Amino acid sequence: MKKNICVLGNSHVGALKRAWDLMPEWHQEYNLVFFTARSNGLGGLILIDNKLVPKTDRLKRTITYTSGGKSEVDIVEYDLFLIYGLQMEVFFVEPGKFFSSAVIKQTVLDSVKGTTSWKIMEMIRSVTNKKIYVGHNPLPIQKKGDDRSYPPESYLSGIKLMNDEVYDKCNAELIAQPADTIVNGCFTERELSKGSKRLPVGDAMDEEAHPDHDIRHMNEEFGKKWLSCFLSRD
Which superkingdom, per the lineage (predicted)? Predict the structure, then answer.
């Protein structure tokens, strides 16, 4: 029997959706349903009778389009959940720097609990204890002149810290971006952004190329790498 996976997110999900459409072999084992909206549109979801329901007609039209016909998220229909993007940024822990545990914990909580990602996770968790996975916004592409570099453990330690302090307590898990997509410990490989397109939501901007100066949106090759790692966890 196929595993039903509910994917909720913003424009960053576009890379994952395109990858999914290009990989029919994944469809034999999994059924991914995408409830997505550009920007912070999913902030307009509210919980009613075990369902995430859009507050506006515009959001209703959007998720009906991206999900292939579903106008609300019936939480009990899914085996697990992936919440991707939606203001979630990663936390870096620099080796050798000392902070009190209280300061670290508060910083992590502050970085997580004001996001739409967290809001949606809380609503899902109030209905079911099924596993929730969280994906942060992709690491940006390196700008010219930005010579920052972090050891790999800074990123991975940040992921671990966020899981230890926040997500483990909720039967949820923040997932690291695949290692082979990361350069200098804090950026995404430039080739994985080339040709990225806007998330299709059923309007005139569907599939428009992102502008050349965009450093945050990724292409389907990135999506393939990310989804492949995600599905291999199952």
Answer: Bacteria
What's the chain's average pLDDT?
94
Q: Return the SS3 of 34.
A: strand
CB of 15 closer than 8 Å to CB of 222: yes
Whole-structure pTM value: 0.95
Nearest to 197 by CA among 13, 9, 8: 13
Residue 38 has pLDDT above 90, yes or no: yes
- Residue 188's closest CA among 228, 155, 230, 233? 155
Task: Outline where the chain has alpha helix (H).
Answer: 13-22, 57-67, 101-113, 116-125, 152-162, 220-231
The proportion of the chain whose per-residue pLDDT surpasses 70, expressed as a percent, equals: 97
| H-helix or E-strand spanning residue 143 | none
Query: Which tokens is 141 given?
Result: 């592409």
- Residue 152 in tokens: 């790999």
Q: Which of 80, 234, 87, 88 is nearest to 172 (CA)?
A: 80
Position of tokens 């483990």? 168
Residue 234, pLDDT above cutoff 80: no
Domains of the chain plus CATH, in order, are 3-231 (3.40.50)
**Phi, psi of 186, deg, nearest 5:** -150, 5
How many CB atoms are located within 10 Å of the residue 168 CB?
13
